[in-house]
Amino acid sequence: MNTNTEDIVSIKGIKDGLLISLSATEEWQNITQTLASKLDAQADFFSGARVTIDVGERPVPKYELTSLKAVLERRHLTLVVVQTTSRTTFNSAQSLDLRTVFPEEDRIGFQDDSINTMPTDPEEQGTPGVMIRRTLRSGRVITSHGHVVVIGDVNPGAQIIATGDIIIWGRLRGTVHAGAEGDTDAIICALDMSPNQLRIADLIATSPKEQKRVVRPEVASVRDDHIIVEAWGQ
Predict the structure, then answer these.
(1) pTM for the whole structure
(2) Which terminus has fewer CB within 10 Å in the chain: N or C?
(3) CA nearest 83: which of 64, 105, 67?
(4) Which residues are bridge partners to 143 per DSSP?
């Protein structure tokens, strides 16, 4: 049975370049071959474009994402954004230093295709989350239906949205939103707390104007309907 190529690879123009949507079920080699054929058919038109790839819930390992990136680069296109609800794809994109975002209807949450997030002990309370072992640069958007732990800095222009807690083992200078579904018990921790903006549930706080401050681990939490920042472990 013949498959419509639009069901395998769809290309359309968006404000920032091209949005290329890929089938969630088609064999990967067929996807890359179909994509290459479509790009070659209008090579002059597509050349130089910035590309957003939407793979939906498809788990794409690093080697497959690397091959896709190479297909684009050979045709003078630049892969800049990966849209996904798969943890596997998310980790692959992070390892290749690609910006990772979610389709609007899936802004909070992952399709967890690679890890069992349930506690080992059924009597033990646990919450799923995601851990990032790298500095988040400007433009990065991380979302999680659970907690987020970053081992590295969160630079200005980077954003984290989590329904649970956010812990930064580094310097926090971007925008973070913990308790994104209204949980006022959520907390934000950082070794150096100097964010552009803090949000917990519906409450917002910003850093004061540049001033001399003691750099120390701090935790932000909600108290009396205000976000309070104090020494971590106090």
Answers:
(1) 0.52
(2) N
(3) 105
(4) 161
**Confidence at residue 112, expressed as pLDDT on a 0 to 100 scale:** 43
Average pLDDT over residues 80-105: 78
Could you give the CA distance from residue 191 to residue 172 in angstroms, rounded to a whole number? 8
Question: CA-CA distances (angstroms) from residue 143 to 2, 163, 174, 175, 217?
Answer: 38, 8, 14, 12, 23
Rounded Cα distance between 184 and 227, Å, is: 10
Give the model's pLDDT for residue 139.
Answer: 81
Q: What is the DSSP letter of 118?
A: S
How many residues can be counted in the chain? 234
pLDDT in tens, 159-176: 998 889 999 999 999 999
Measured in whole angstroms, the distance separating CA 187 from the mean position of its chain's CA atoms is 20
Q: Name the strand (E) or helix (H) holding 41.
A: helix 28-41
The rounded distance, in Å, linking the Cα atoms of 230 and 234 is 7
- To the nearest 10°, report the CA torsion of 73, 79, 82, 86: 20
Query: Most distant CA pair in the chain: distance in Å?
Result: 69
- Cα-Cα-Cα-Cα dihedral sign, residues 38, 39, 44, 48: positive
Provide the 10 A C-beta neighbour count for residue 206: 12
Neighbours of 87 (CB within 10 A): 19
Higher pLDDT: 124 or 179? It is 179
Q: Would you state the structure tokens that stand for residue 12, as one six-digit string?
A: 């359309």
Q: Which of 93, 77, 94, 82 is nearest to 39 (CA)?
A: 77
Q: What values do phi and psi take at 218, rounded to 5?
A: -135, 160
Cα torsion for 170, 175, 179, 182, to the nearest 10°? 170
Residue 41 tokens, joined:
């058919």
